[in-house]
Amino acid sequence: MFKLGMALVFAVIAALVIFLTGLIGGVRLSTACLRSLVGFICAGAFTYLTVFILEAKGWAAFDKTAAQRMSDMQSVLYNADDIDFDSVGAADGAPQDFAEPMAFKPLVEEELVHMKTPEEAAAEEGEPMPAPA
Predict the structure, then answer these.
(1) 122: exposed, middle or buried (C-beta count within 10 Å: 0-12, 13-18, 19+)?
(2) How far apart are CA 86 and CA 15, in angstroms?
(3) Which residue has the higher pLDDT, 55 or 30?
């Protein structure tokens, strides 16, 4: 329903703009009406097709509620056969198991890469420090 309503709004706006510019431009009334009818049909069709394609690709969800959009995203992001979304959190300790780190290893200073200044690098290599430019 939203697609049709949006197409009608844009089509009416386009028809009014075309009709008014035709009257201001000094064309006959029949010519302005015919041009506005053509503009109404073209703008309506273009808007409807654009919104239809956006929804078909999944880039916009104009007609759906938040729950419907969430179920669509879950089925797209995850393989619905592998995951039972209704049973999430049903088991005891599920959030704790999820939040518990499996392979946590704290940072140790010896394992980090240390940056050296040009003076330190030149001193380690035994070369004289170049003069500043």
Answers:
(1) middle
(2) 49
(3) 30
